[in-house]
């Protein structure tokens, strides 16, 4: 897993023997075990790493007005009950929420207003709730609705 894995050597003396994985990949799923020996004592811990994946079809960046399918999947073993997608959830009236039984969201004609932060939230039969955030990029025209722009002769026009 090198070079994606690091130990924080400076914190080992304080009892922190954390492992950092950056970036996490789907194949990193599984049970991790740590053993630390201090004098004659041996301490161990087990941590299970689960992964949630957000995928786009077609991949990011998305072209304005081309069909977009966003999927959200997790390595959690229980039955998926509901998937909710939240768009710009902290921005007031522009926020939107979509919920369904599957992990997918279709946007037929993505617009520039669909760009930004999307969070998928997966709810499982064992009451576990898992979420991930994805920053969607949309390529398109974000200009005036009227395509005619007037500029004074001798000045610049954008």
From TrEMBL:
<dbReference type="InterPro" id="IPR007110">
    <property type="entry name" value="Ig-like_dom"/>
</dbReference>
<dbReference type="GO" id="GO:0070374">
    <property type="term" value="P:positive regulation of ERK1 and ERK2 cascade"/>
</dbReference>
<dbReference type="GO" id="GO:0045121">
    <property type="term" value="C:membrane raft"/>
</dbReference>
<dbReference type="GO" id="GO:0035723">
    <property type="term" value="P:interleukin-15-mediated signaling pathway"/>
</dbReference>
<dbReference type="InterPro" id="IPR036179">
    <property type="entry name" value="Ig-like_dom_sf"/>
</dbReference>
<dbReference type="GO" id="GO:1990782">
    <property type="term" value="F:protein tyrosine kinase binding"/>
</dbReference>
<protein>
    <submittedName>
        <fullName>LAG3 protein</fullName>
    </submittedName>
</protein>
<feature type="domain" description="Ig-like">
    <location>
        <begin position="50"/>
        <end position="131"/>
    </location>
</feature>
<dbReference type="GO" id="GO:0042289">
    <property type="term" value="F:MHC class II protein binding"/>
</dbReference>
<dbReference type="GO" id="GO:0009897">
    <property type="term" value="C:external side of plasma membrane"/>
</dbReference>
<dbReference type="InterPro" id="IPR013783">
    <property type="entry name" value="Ig-like_fold"/>
</dbReference>
<dbReference type="GO" id="GO:0042110">
    <property type="term" value="P:T cell activation"/>
</dbReference>
